[in-house]
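tool=predict chain=A
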Amino acid sequence: MNKITVFCELNKEKNALSSCSYELITKAYELSKQAQELNNTEFFIEAICCDNVENIENKEKIFSSGANKFVLIENKNIENHNFDVLKDTFLNYYKDNKSDVILFPATAPMRHCAPCITVNLDCGLVADCIDLNFILKDENLMLSATRPTFGSELMATIISKKLPQCATIRPGIFKNKTVKDENGEFIKIQSEIENNKKIKLISNILQNNNDEINIEGAEIILCAGYGLNSANREYFKKLEKIAQITKTQIGCTRKVVDFGIMDSKYQIGLTGSNTKAQLYIGFGVAGAIQHMCSVKNSKKIVAINTDADAEIFNYCDYKIVGDAKKIIDEILTQIEQ
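tool=predict ok
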């Protein structure tokens, strides 16, 4: 039987898999269903986590998200960002448990570790993907991976020639769902692979993260586009005020960041954060493809733009052709009364 392996990350605060890991497990399950429809090929879904941890909570969610098997490899030497130990721990397991497809989350650690793994496997890696599908090529089932290219202005679809076919996928692109029952096989393995001392942690500098900024987990996003720009940039401040009063999350497009109007931590897009909000409202957002790729999974999309032919209107559920600045003024008047 064919197999898809999902290389999972641990959320140490919750002692459970990270949200992007669950997203990839569900996507792997959907790929397996697609393969069955294309040429009746069955795929076994394996989730694997290698870390310095004895146990992981909420294993039922791993199986209900689509995994048939969950492998936890405990290695006390996986710490302080030593990716060599992480890589060797996985490869030691993989040599006797090969896969046709390996999916990695495109987080900072995995962007470092995944290429190291695929070099050792002598196979390709499609990085920062925004979509995955199976296609039939010369009657063979192949993984088709789509990623942005040329400054995120175009999308490229890439097929790897060698097995395993590997890809890293940006967090927040896919949705985690309950797709099957909570039953599955759980295996725990103790690994003794040691630190080879090639990488040494010199210091650990923690940034002061603002807990109020939660683009990926926000229920409602108010997104500021460059169409709000004016001489004194007052409408960006007004939209921030609306977000504060209504306890919603403000975001912005790349152009707003590029012109120094808002900080990059608020940016939504392929070079920023992704959102799967229940409600996304774009104020003066044009709808560039690199922005909409990170917005498309929102449940409801509302767009406000003076240009009736704005690209964002091709994606939205509700279209408002009008001045977003006037609408912001009207909203402020209502909520401040």
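The mean pLDDT is 90. Residues 19-39 form the longest helix (21 residues).
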